[in-house]
Specification:
6-stranded parallel β-sheet, Quinone Oxidoreductase, Chain A, domain 1, globular, 315 residues, 11 helices, 2 domains, alpha/beta, Rossmann fold
């Protein structure tokens, strides 16, 4: 394992001694040189972590102090023993969340909050469809939507095991197996042709037609990933965009400035942290690896079979 110098905190930053960090799909892309890094990101991978504040750089620590247990989001550098991070992106760790659970919160829950509330403008009594339904972002988003009063929550997944997990454990209204079902046609049947108010899509091109077809009037599609590619197949019919007044918007998180990320951090603190404390919201951890087995952790993430977070711990 490479040794790199311990980071030095800039003004407004803290140095956090890391206890655990979460893996994300962007890490796989970054490893292959396919992820455009924001200019302020170090080359070391990893954006979410839990740990203990060790020191500060300069002034403006918000309400944090040395020794505080925190979790947070960084532009990079979390695959390490120490990370330098803006205090604007730190959250006090609730006592009963383990280090592993806390490390699995920042990227996924903030992304889900952003897609649902900030971009998707989700309102109580609306319906929502989460593609990649057993991914960590969707698992977070399903819980957020349920707590916010969703009329119905739908999902697409790739196995019966994941359907059972979502419907029985998370209370999803209906999940569809995209490998064996025409999810768009099934969803239209399920909704009596009314469609869904909001779709959150990580797949991209192969799902675009279906997203338009199942959108309700004045529906919204939030595009968060391109796991299926970015070039639309021939014959895509964009008429529903016009006739149903569908709004499609793409979004990223890592390339946003600190003030925008701080706003999302505050959304997370308002919407989610109290519900972590009272047990309403659960962080699903699929498997925990020691840091030394990071390659095996990446290999598991590549299989697309997981339900929830893969976490590495630093002993």
């Amino acid at each position: 394992m490479d040794s790199i110098a311990k980071p030095v905190p800039a003004n407004g930053q803290a140095i956090v001694k890391i206890k655990a960090f979460g893996l994300n799909r962007m890490d796989l892309l970054q490893r292959e040189g396919l992820y455009p890094l924001p200019p302020q990101a170090p080359e070391t991978m990893g954006v979410e972590f839990s740990g203990v504040i060790e020191e500060f750089g300069g002034q403006a620590h918000e309400d944090f102090k040395v020794g505080d247990e925190v979790f947070g989001l960084a532009y990079g550098g979390a695959y390490a023993e120490y990370v330098a991070v803006s205090t604007k992106m730190l959250v006090h760790k609730p006592k009963h969340l383990s280090w592993e659970e806390a490390a699995g919160v920042p990227e996924t829950w903030i992304t889900a909050s952003q897609a649902l509330f900030l971009i998707g403008d989700f309102q109580k009594g609306q319906s929502v469809l989460w593609h990649a339904g057993a991914s960590s972002v969707s698992i977070s988003g399903i819980q957020l939507a349920k707590a916010a009063g969703a009329k119905a929550i739908y999902a697409t997944v790739g196995s019966q095991e994941k359907i059972d997990f979502l419907e029985k454990e998370l209370g999803v209204t209906k999940a569809f197996n995209y490998k064996t079902q025409d999810w768009a046609a099934e969803l239209q049947k399920e909704t009596g042709g009314a469609g869904v108010n909001l779709t959150v899509d990580f797949i991209g091109a192969p799902y675009f037609q279906g997203d338009l077809d199942v959108a309700a009037r004045d529906g919204r599609v939030v595009l968060l990933g391109l796991m299926g590619g970015g070039k639309l197949p021939d014959g895509v019919n964009i008429a529903p965009l016009l006739f149903k007044r569908v709004r499609v918007e793409g979004s990223t998180l890592r390339s946003r400035d600190e003030d925008y990320q701080a706003k999302l951090r505050d959304t997370l603190v308002d919407h989610a942290v109290p519900k972590f404390c009272d047990g309403t919201f659960r962080v699903f951890v699929e498997k925990v690896f020691p840091f030394e087995e990071i390659m095996a952790a990446h290999q598991l993430l590549e299989t697309n079979t997981t339900k929830g977070k893969i976490i590495c711990v630093i002993e």
